[in-house]
Amino acid sequence: MESHLDLYLDYLTVERGLAVNTRASYSADLVKFLSYLNDRGIDDWSQIRFPEVMGFLSQAQELGLAPRSRARLLSTLRGFFKFMVRDSHLSENPVANLTSPRLRRHLPAVLSVTEVERLLTQPNPDLPLGQRDVAMLEVLYGTGLRVSELTTLTLGRVNLEVGFLVVMGKGSKERIVPMGEAAIEAVRSYTLKSRPRLLKGRVSEVLFVTNRGSAMTRQGFWKLLKKYGRQAGIQKPLTPHTLRHSFATHLLERGADLRSVQMMLGHADISTTQIYTHVARERLQKVHQKYHPRA
Predict the structure, then answer these.
(1) Residue 236 annotated among the catalytic residues of the structure
(2) Closest CA relative to residue 71, chosen from 115, 102, 113, 106
(3) Structural domain that includes position 148
């Protein structure tokens, strides 16, 4: 049974071109399913029917797995069994008639423009690390990058003269993202002044480096962001994704079209981007209720 898992994972990498992290998530889900089957003495994929799949999903629910995670498990199984039937390893698909549950979409936490401005003034630009942190925050808010895209950004993918980044996003898909003047100036100052001082003669293609000359990690940046959030007095949950959400929401509030925001965020499906229209609408309603004399 393990050999078929390996075949499927190779298919995801070679034919589907999925990123390493996505492949790892599929692998983890399938290993859990295989362990469940082994515990029940099932040693051949042809023995699996609808009840076995439902038993696995029910167990995941009993173990407290969140609805979104259970939906991902089902999506993984659906893709795997579709592959097994397509390549004639199975004659029937035991999950063919299973539908994914409708998930409630939670509106993301978004900072106000004032909160973002307070956050951006927290690092000390007179220090090399502070100037780097200003540049990272300006780029994150100014482009809507994911934190993994920010920390792996290389010098060759940044064009300060024209003002854009070339980002390698999910699924190894490239996209071009414009940079605002604030982000351009912050990166220019950092690369000219602070970056050489942090590298101390070492060579690195990564744009944002630590004082040891290594690439900034996602976890390291997250800790810095939380520190600056506390200093700024921000009470909302604050993660790198909060700035990405704020980037998208603030653009839409000021009249940007949904398709352009989708392209900048790198969303494959515009329905993912549409959640920000709900965020913007909710914020406008709150402003109206707070300030209109007859609200």
Answers:
(1) no
(2) 102
(3) 113-291
Catalytic (active site) residue 146:
yes
Which residues touch 218 (CB under 8 Å, ≥6 apart)?
A: 147, 148, 151, 240
Model confidence pLDDT, tens digit, residues 203-224: 999 999 999 999 999 889 999 9
Q: Is 241 a catalytic residue?
A: yes
Looking at the fold, whether 238 and 122 belong to one and the same domain comes out as yes
Reported as a single tens digit per residue, the pLDDT across 61-112 is: 888 877 778 888 888 898 899 888 888 888 888 888 776 655 455 667 889 9
Percent residues over pLDDT 90 in the chain:
41
Say which of 70, 132, 195, 244 is annotated catalytic. 244
**Does residue 278 carry a catalytic annotation?**
no
Catalytic-labelled residue, pool 170, 218, 226, 283: 170
Whether 283 sits among the annotated catalytic residues: the reply is no
Residue 11 annotated as catalytic:
no
Q: Is residue 273 included in any domain, yes or no?
A: yes
Residue whose entry in the numeric block shows the structure tokens 């909060």: 242
